[in-house]
Each structure stands twice: as structure tokens, then as C-alpha cells.
Amino acid sequence: MISRFIALSPAFILTAALMPGPAFAQDAAAGERLFRQRCASCHTVQPGQNRIGPTLSGLVGRKAGSVEGARYSPKMRELDVTWDAARIDSFIANPRAMVPGTTMTVSVANAADRANITAYLAGLAAAN
Question: Considering its fold, how many domains does the chain have in total?
């Protein structure tokens, strides 16, 4: 019995170490703060209002490059994707890797910050 416990212990430790901790939990309130700090100078969440970048209201589930009146790079207009959490995460991690030629220059390196921003934007889509 003890030898079985000793043999299984490393597996339990490894499993616990690989599970996301509280720092990676999605937090829409933290995402809103991060959005205001990192994104709001170029984007708004008000429907129909564009700034340098398009409104992000209703982003989740929307085709890329499709907001009427927004200024997009040609590559963003040609991008044939619909925004979901994974694509938003990939894009804000490194916009120019996903869309070469995009005019978006801001990236968010921290995975927890990206998850929080994405949770905030997804919450906006659910509220609309």
C-alpha cells in the first residue's frame, strides 16, 4: 500500500503543477481595467463608435474586418475568421504574427491578462 502511494505521488504532484492556478482564472472585472489601460486609447466598447480601431462591442462572433466605417488594413479585411476567445487571445498576443500588415501595434504578452481582456470582451457580447 505504501509503495503504491509513493509510486503515484509524482503523478499527483505533476498533475497539480500543470493545472491552471487562480492567476489564470478569467476575471472580467480585471479585464475591464486592463482594457481601459491597454486598449481604450484606440478602441471603444460603445456600439457604432469607432476610434483609431473599430468598436469592440460584439466582437465575439463577429467576422474580422467587418465593422462598418472602421479603418482596417487590407490584410485584416481579407482575414476570413470569426472572432472567438482563442482567436482574440492569439491576436492580442502578437497581432502581426496572426495578421501580417495589421495596423494594430499593441500586444499583450501576459497570458492571464489576455484571458481577462477576452473574458471582458466576451461578457460584452453576452450582454448585448
Answer: 1
